[in-house]
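Whiteboard transcription, Tuesday session. T.W. wrote the structure tokens on the left side:
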């Protein structure tokens, strides 16, 4: 079964063709990072305009590289939530147009589900149930994966997402956008124990809070500047990264233990962080758990993961009509309301 996936939730216009949920026939991504770097972050209006300019050729190239045509497809999967509303609408409306023109089934995919599905592409033998940490610029979730289409959110951030905190701290230190990559690189040369940073508590046992940690780093830098003291950016980066990674891994392992599961996974843009991957491997090995991580190309936003999840949703009989709309925010628990069976 061949699925065309379309992703446009933020600043990557992406299209991919995936066969049977795990075999990637093509994956094309048009990134806008260089342009948004000028503004220190993603500008929603610019992102939407670039999606309009890119989506036709990106989809065409993905089809060409896969050696397939619309007639040979079984369905069209598209990210419909959550994300930047203007950006999402470009992908959703393009997918609806293709669906109407070709008669192919339209499958809406929740962005977080897509990130989790990246692990099924990389590890076809991975089977639910398991606990997955989803960490990116917009999301920080602990998810209990019951099946390929059934998910339970056990914990989430109560304020900033992990990736968002990385970007904001990087800006204060003086690193360019995107900050997460810069902090990871600088941390390789820094002392992770140079600065003692707080680990904020959240209400739920698996919830996150990164706002206080971010503020602590901002205050550290500002106070040093006011006193004329020297701050070593690499040490700040290493200390911050170590603290965030310990928070993320601790919550993931605690959830797995509490729910009696010995299989854990990680997904999302922050899953590319070398410090997080190393700590996950260490702690999973120490506890005798099986750990699954997507390869770096599948950590960030891409359409292969959307096509993959679309395959499982279609097998479960889930689809949408021409009235499908994009949603800037959408809890996983409410996701099924957008489908028909």
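and on the right, the sequence the group agreed on:
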């Amino acid at each position: 079964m061949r699925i065309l996936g379309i992703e446009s939730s933020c600043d990557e216009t992406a299209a991919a063709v995936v066969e049977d949920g795990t075999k990637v026939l093509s994956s094309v991504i048009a990134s806008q990072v260089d342009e948004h770097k000028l503004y220190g972050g993603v500008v929603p209006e610019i992102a939407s305009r670039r999606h309009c300019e890119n989506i036709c050729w990106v989809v065409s190239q993905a089809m060409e590289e896969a050696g397939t045509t619309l007639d040979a497809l079984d369905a069209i999967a598209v990210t419909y939530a959550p994300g930047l509303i203007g950006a999402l609408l470009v992908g959703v409306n393009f997918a609806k147009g293709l669906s109407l023109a070709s008669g192919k089934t339209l499958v809406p995919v929740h962005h977080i589900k897509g990130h989790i599905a990246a692990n099924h592409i990389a590890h076809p033998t991975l089977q639910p149930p398991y606990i997955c940490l989803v960490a990116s610029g917009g999301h920080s979730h602990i998810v209990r994966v019951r099946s390929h289409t059934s998910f339970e959110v056990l914990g989430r951030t109560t304020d900033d997402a992990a990736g968002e905190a990385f970007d904001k701290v990087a800006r204060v230190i003086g690193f360019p956008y995107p900050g997460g990559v810069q902090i990871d690189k600088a941390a390789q040369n820094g002392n992770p124990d140079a600065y003692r940073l707080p680990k904020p508590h959240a209400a739920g046992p698996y919830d996150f809070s990164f706002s206080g940690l971010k503020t602590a780093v901002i205050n550290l830098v500002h106070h040093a500047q006011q006193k004329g003291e020297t701050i070593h950016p690499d040490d700040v980066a290493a200390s911050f990264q170590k603290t965030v990674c310990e928070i993320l891994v601790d919550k993931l392992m605690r959830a797995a233990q509490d729910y009696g599961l010995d299989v854990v996974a990680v997904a999302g843009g922050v899953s590319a962080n070398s410090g997080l991957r190393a700590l996950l491997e260490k702690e999973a090995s120490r506890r005798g758990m099986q750990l699954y991580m997507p390869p770096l190309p599948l950590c960030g936003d891409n359409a292969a993961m959307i096509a993959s999840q679309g395959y499982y949703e279609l097998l479960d009989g889930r689809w949408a009509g021409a009235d499908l709309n994009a949603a800037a925010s959408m809890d996983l628990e409410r996701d099924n309301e957008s489908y028909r069976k």
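Someone added at the bottom: The domain at 128-296 is CATH 3.30.420.40 (Nucleotidyltransferase; domain 5).
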